[in-house]
Specification:
The chain has about 210 residues and is an alpha/beta fold. It has helices spanning about 1-10, 10-20, 35-45, 70-80, 95-100, 100-110, 125-130, 165-180, 195-205; strands at about 25-30, 55-60, 85-90, 115-125, 140-145, 180-185.
Length: about 210
């Protein structure tokens, strides 16, 4: 969705959408890989009180070293003192907890400084997902989820053109949620594959 916005929307269009009356806080998501989107989003949000919305962005992996300079860059692009949610983006290797230790330490330091409010990961693949239950650093997990595995997690550490294991994903998602981790779902419509209610109803009848 962020990619579609950056390609087809300008900041004035986004601002008109964002100032629509609302009685609850709004959530806005971008990512390091969505080039131009953070700047456009910040322009659209300029006139809106900061305490009425939450910002989430993603730090691209694989990466290493001190993440604080890049976090400051994100804050500058978004024109904000703090980021509500910062995720390690595209988490794939089962060894991420050691591979990205420097990033985790930097995120934790950023949270202590209150320049981010929470940290987590956007997961891509069963090898990484299987390590989430029991993890004590992650506060939020973004997990691919839909009714039949379209564009969901497989045993591979790269994206493949085959259905993911929806049942196993649900099992791990329930486990991390039970331990108090926040869960955000993505790919609910399989990147637009499941546009019709009939698609979901047919799968539901097949499972009964």
């Amino acid at each position: 969705m962020a990619g579609e916005f950056s390609a087809n929307w300008d900041s004035r269009s986004l601002h008109a959408l964002f100032v629509m009356p609302t009685t609850t806080a709004s959530d806005f998501e971008t990512a390091e890989s969505c080039h131009g989107m953070p700047d456009m989003l910040s322009t659209a949000l300029q006139a809106i009180p900061r305490d009425t919305y939450r910002l989430m962005t993603k730090y691209s992996t694989p990466a290493s070293g001190d993440p604080l300079p890049k976090i400051d860059q994100f804050r500058s692009q978004l024109r904000t003192d703090y980021i509500d949610i910062l995720l390690l983006h595209c988490l794939r290797p089962p060894t991420w907890q050691t591979d990205y230790k420097s990033l985790q330490d930097g995120f934790s330091e950023a949270k202590e400084k209150k320049i981010i409010l929470s940290h987590g990961a956007s997961v891509h693949g069963l090898p990484a997902l299987r390590t989430l239950p029991g993890d004590q650093w992650l506060e939020i997990a973004m997990i691919r989820m839909n009714h039949n595995g379209t564009r969901m997690d497989t045993p591979e550490t790269h994206d493949v053109d085959e259905l993911g294991n929806a049942r196993e994903v649900v099992e791990h998602t329930k486990a991390v949620h039970a331990q108090g981790m926040g869960v955000i779902s993505k790919k609910l419509c399989g990147e637009g594959v499941h546009r019709r209610l009939d698609d979901r109803l047919q799968e539901h009848r097949r499972d009964r």
